[in-house]
Amino acid sequence: MFAYIVRRILYAFPILIGVNALTFALFFMVNTPDDMARMNLGVKHVTQEAMDAWKQERGYDKALLWNSESEGVNKATDTIFFDTSLNLFSFQFGRADDGRDIAEDIKTRMWPSLAIAVPVFMIGLLVNITFALLMVFFRATYVDLAGVIICVTIMSISGLFYIIGGQFLVGKLMQLVPISGFGDGFSAIKFLILPVAIGVVSGIGAGSRWYRTLFLEEVSKDYVRTARAKGLSEVQVLFRHVLKNAMIPILTGAVVVIPTLFMGSLILESFFGIPGLGSYTIDAINAQDFAIVRSMVFLGSVLYIVGLVLTDLSYTLVDPRVRLDG
Q: Cβ(257)–Cβ(125) under 8 Å?
């Protein structure tokens, strides 16, 4: 087990290097340091001296990938790419192009993201599995057919429709909850009710259909027929056998979404004005703030790799036949 974890961590380094390099290449294919300086200074007729001072203050005055003016190994190390990459791997995110401390921003904004993502994840998982089990219990009946039609309908509608429709109906017409904003402590609950409900409802279609497929596959297996032959009721078969044996693919889908719990929902946070990491990333992209963008992409990649490792480890808990030998 220990050897497996060490091996996966070692595998992660070339992946993270590649992600970081790709992010760097894509960003600087669109922007030059001069473009970034001009946008952040916010002056139409900004002078070259002001741009040079801005770049020097943030380390953007160096060569991008290869510094031909340096000697020896400094040709590769005395560059923007090396400086920014080395700090990332030590989780020193530095400062944004506007001077803010990125690490402090992440610590502050991760809690609103968790406040919306964790309830959506937990409630959505419970609702999707319950709805899927209900369709499987009434399989090949009108209840099952109606459930599938509902799922397909929900899947076919854009998530923006649920957001805009929910804001208009619940927030504006009925005035039950605020349309946007956020608060401190328990006052934040009223701002989270609507986005959490929309997040759960919009995910029912895809989630329930996927779980229904898993459960139907298990229902047709020999051990289920054996359980029925022993006199177990259909409810006992579904909850004691089918659900338990479908846990591996369920865990695969559940654990892998761990990064989204921290990174937040880009669309929900943006539309509901929630100051989480999702809206933080969107704002950084709009402002062309490379320091924040590369930090969030790197952090998301790290969390995704952690999610994959946790998925493999969770297999050993639900299936004793799985062993992660070194």
A: no
pLDDT band at 46 (very low <50, low <70, confident <90, very high): confident
- Classify residue 169 by its DSSP letter: I
Let me know the angle formed at the C-alpha of 263 by 257 and 265, rounded to the nearest 5 degrees.
80
Give the pair of three-digit tokens for residue 175: 């005035």
Domain locations in the chain?
2-89, 107-318
Give the side-chain half-sphere CA count within 13 A for 140.
Answer: 2
SS3 186: helix
- Length of the chain equals 326
Global confidence as pTM = 0.81
CB of 60 closer than 8 Å to CB of 248: no
- pLDDT score recorded for residue 253: 74
Distance CA 189, CA 278 (A): 19
Number of Cβ within 10 Å of residue 23's Cβ equals 21
Cα(111)–Cα(185) distance, integer angstroms: 11
Place of tokens 């779980």: 211
Other C-beta atoms closer than 10 Å to the C-beta of 90 total 7
Q: How far apart are CA 234 and CA 218, in angstroms?
A: 13
Q: Which residues lie across from 220 on neighbouring strands? A: none
Find, among 92, 73, 72, 76, the residue nearest to 84 by Cα. Answer: 92
Q: CATH for 107-318?
A: 1.10.3720.10
Residue 188 pLDDT more than 70? yes
